[in-house]
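W.,

You were right to be curious about this one. When I first looked at the sequence I had no strong expectations either way, so I just let the prediction run and decided to look at it fresh. Below is the sequence, 103 residues in total, followed by the output.
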Amino acid sequence: MSAEKRTRFDGWLAGICASRVFNGLVFVLLGLQLRHMVAGVIDYDFPHLAGYALALWALLMALRLGWVWASALLRHIQTGYIYHYAFTMIIGLFALLTWWFGH
């Protein structure tokens, strides 16, 4: 295997490992909080909890579809040049700070 392919493979493997570690950490943290979460919803009946779960699912699906739709529309304006992205970030940060402090 060439050095370039080996470097790419190592980077890919590091990304996979980092993703697995992060996912494991999230599940451990959720497991540690499970007792508190169950105690917080014990007063609700099943139809209310199912309704909340369905509403949350619908919201997340709408966000996901909106994200996919927007990214499909915006892929045509991507240039691939780093300075375009940096310039856009600077403009966005300036607009956010202007709104934040001018508000």
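Here's what jumped out at me. The chain has two domains: 1-43, 45-103. And, maybe more interesting for your project: The chain is about 85% helix and 0% strand.

Coffee later to discuss?

I.
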